[in-house]
Amino acid sequence: MKAKELIYNLRTNLASAGSELTDATDQHIMYMLDEARAKLAAQKMDAKVNIVQMSQVVDVKPIKAPKSDIGQIGSANVLKLVLPDLISYSNGIGVFTVGSTDGEESYTEISYSQLRTVLFRKYTSNSPKWFMLEGSIYVLNTEISGIQKVRVRGIFDEPYKVEIAMGRYKYLDPFNWEYPMTFKDADTIYKLAIAGDMGWGDSAMQAIKSAESKQKNKNQLLNTLQGLGQQNQAE
Length: 235
Fold this sequence. Notes:
This protein has helices at residues 3-16, 26-46, 67-70, 115-118, 159-165, 183-194, 202-234, and strands at residues 56-60, 63-64, 78-81, 88-89, 92-93, 95-100, 108-109, 129-133, 136-140, 150-154. It is of the alpha+beta class.
């Protein structure tokens, strides 16, 4: 389903629910969808439910990992992948696979704490590996030429950023791309977005309008007092 279709459907649902957000911009509606999708994905991953339909693939050009990030790890060749933000859940981060762009090689996941031991294993010390640290992926034992990339499949917080990274995003038609979720999940995501506990929910809009109303009343009172003062001076 296209992102623009989901925006239209959520806006329609908001109107049916009597929400004050029906006039929100498409960007705000998309933000609500993204937050609701991330929340549902995290819940499903915690419950160990398959959510491959929510995943996206991004090909990233690696850079040499700065020593300031992870220090010197023996003589290992360490590369860094800078990605759009991934969702997080109770047991980790939403990365499924890291490997070559042709799909022929999948790197082995390790943890940062395992670095000092895996590099000295007799049979697997030189095989490609990856680990996550502070929002970035680091890859070991992989020779990447200047034009090659590494492929990451995972669940990302804001799907449009993957579209940008892959060169498919059209700024003049910003919501004409396939949004990563199933029809079955769409109804649940609409309900989560409408619930009011999301970043751009009605509770936030009501707070904004309340503040605006207070400022308007304050201005009206000030104008009234100024008018009375001018009238007294004229008399």
